[in-house]
# Entry
Amino acid sequence: MRRIVGLALFLVAFAAVAAETPSLEERMSKDEFRAAGLEKLSPAELKTLNDWLAGHQPTKIVTKEVTSDGRPVFYPSNVKAEPVSDRINGSFSGWYGKTIFRLENGQEWTQAESGQFSNGKYDHPKVKIKPMLLGSWLMYVEPCGCSVRVERTK
# Structure
């Protein structure tokens, strides 16, 4: 009996999370949906994918410190900053002034130096972002062997 009650509570909680999470159709434009090939999925396959996404939402980051102008402080000075290894979420074709780099882990990093760079187009390239002197960060894009100074914005 306890198992049935536990399973029922789990299903109710899962349904509540799924109901709060917008579907792919709501989150993407029709062109993005088509470009990803999702229109080829059957309704059952699409529902399974939406249910899986609902249960695997990125964790929300809560910052405890903000700058004087209200921006979040992701790496306080009393905490050792660790390098970040991930992939760019989507394609990468360089940077052009204030380019925003969105990672698959949900983080966003913005170009923190002037200049432009282009060296082809890469799909979901691996990146390494490491702390440098005086609180700055350097993002290295693996496939092109290029790097740019960045600051975390999300």
